[in-house]
Amino acid sequence: MDNTSTDRRQRTEEGELSKAALERLALCYQMATRKGEEGQDTVNSAELAQALSVDPTLVRKDMAAAGITGRPKVGYLVADVLKQLDTVLGLSSRNDAIIVGCGHLGAALAAYNGFSMYGLKVVGVFDADFAKVGQVLGGHVVLPMEKCRSLIEIFRVEIAILAVPVSAAQETTDWLVSRNIRAIWNFAPVQLRVPHDVVVRNENLAQGLAQLIHNYNRVKTHGPRTKPPHA
Amino acid sequence: MDNTSTDRRQRTEEGELSKAALERLALCYQMATRKGEEGQDTVNSAELAQALSVDPTLVRKDMAAAGITGRPKVGYLVADVLKQLDTVLGLSSRNDAIIVGCGHLGAALAAYNGFSMYGLKVVGVFDADFAKVGQVLGGHVVLPMEKCRSLIEIFRVEIAILAVPVSAAQETTDWLVSRNIRAIWNFAPVQLRVPHDVVVRNENLAQGLAQLIHNYNRVKTHGPRTKPPHA
DNA sequence: TAGATTGTTAATCGATTAACAATC
DNA sequence: TAGATTGTTAATCGATTAACAATC
Q1: Burial of A102 (0-12, 13-18, 19+ CB in 10 A)
Q2: Phi, psi dihedrals of residue B76, rounded to the nearest 5°
Q3: Fewer CB within 10 Å: N-end or C-end of chain B?
């Protein structure tokens, strides 16, 4: 064969990754990071599949969709996986973000230092409650909402982490959108209404909990699923 | 037709709700709660569908699968929806749980008071780090791991909320499982290995973030999806 | 009654899996 | 070369949507 890797690069762009595929790829990224730390420089689809409890074919298909090519008999180069997924998952891009709402969850998020790994830099933390203004959370001084507008403009922030109560969520969202926020990581258990060009990711903890409890009760009553994931 | 509603009740049990369906139903539950608070006593599939950005038919199918019957021209009784979803989502069951790991996230979870709504009662909060032991978080005194075993036995706890670092996650899980924990709400970004009869729900924030950023970048580059959700 | 809304069956669509060819 | 592992095409499966009948 006469090509090395240059001409198949285009495919990367067109692949419409499904939500499920994206989740699996994020997991693959984590696995690959781990493998790298352990000194391995390749991973194969079987290992990844086992860790994700899915079919190896599916992993290979996801890899292909993400524009990652492996080598027969070898697997995927960890370096390739990390580099390409960096791009596909958009992890390599640097983005500024603000946190709005400093209840317990907002405070935890403000103090969480794992975001930087994903290219997110928190440049401001806001709360409407004056009692909270001035507190220091994870190196950030909590600012009043009045300051939010100018900060968004100065840093050209387009990403907001929303951790306000349900009652304020929609209103705050509308305000943020009108100030040019284009992506919202929503921790309030409401379905936000936003224009089509604004991206929302809901992190609905109550929903996650409900699902856990449901499955727990199901297993308790009916026993574990007949078909074990991948023993 | 000659039946009222008694004989179609059985169906409730067999319906294998998919993960996606479960998520939608959890959202329906929230919507119905809201409607109830606003004084409405019915909701129809169109309203719900709009709020969830899905097809009305899908809502009706989910309702049917959950064993909820509506009335033509009226919709679903809010009371019916809440009562039946209480059961289906297992919200009405009361369960004791422990929180393991009291970093920022664990602390936020310990202080979060929304769990009780879902029938979960936190009966103990633990950390391996002695520096954290004795702190009070949301009304709970942080206990050392040594106390964990007996507390699990005394309360017959089967649900654990895991908020330890990645490095400790699998080990802690193995320990908890050996002590008879049967459901784990996992906040560490690792895929835990557990026996088939143990239920795990992953709340992988990094994964959520990766997805948000990916979509944000996509929209920024290619513009919003051609097919608007449900304008 | 006429109209609105549910409930269900059939059609479509997309995602996963199986089979196998390609290739290092 | 023989064997392992990727990559791809075809088959299956499940979930969503469309069409329409049932019913309040």
Answers
A1: buried
A2: -105, 140
A3: N
CA distance B24 to B4: 27
- Percentage helix, strand, coil, to 5, in chain B? 45, 15, 40
Helix (H, G, I), strand (E, B) or coil at A103: coil
Q: How far is residue B89's CA from residue A217's CA, in Å, rounded to a whole number?
A: 9
pLDDT confidence tier of residue A59, bands split at 50, 70 and 90: very high
Helix H or strand E segment including B45: helix B45-52
Spatial separation of the C-alpha atoms in residues A206 and B33, rounded to whole Å = 13
Give the pLDDT confidence of B181-229 residue by residue, as tens digits: 999 999 988 888 898 889 999 888 877 888 888 888 888 877 775 444 3
Share the mean pLDDT of chain B: 85
Buried b / exposed e over B171-192, threshold 16 CB at 10 Å, is: ebbeebbebebbbbbbbbbbbb
Contact state of A229 with B138 under an 8 Å Cβ cutoff: no
Amino acid at position B86, single letter: D
Q: CA-CA distance, A21 to A101, in Å (whole number)?
A: 31
Q: CB under 7 Å from any atom of strand C: which residues?
A: A 1, 18, 20-21, 54-55, 57-58, 61, 71-74; B 44-46, 56-57, 60-61, 63-64, 68-76
Give the bridge partners for A137, in sequence order: A140
pTM surpassing 0.85?
Answer: no
| Closest C-alpha among B117, B209, B106, B231 to residue B165 | B106
Token look-up 């079919």 returns: A55
Query: Tokens 């017959």 — which residue?
Result: B156
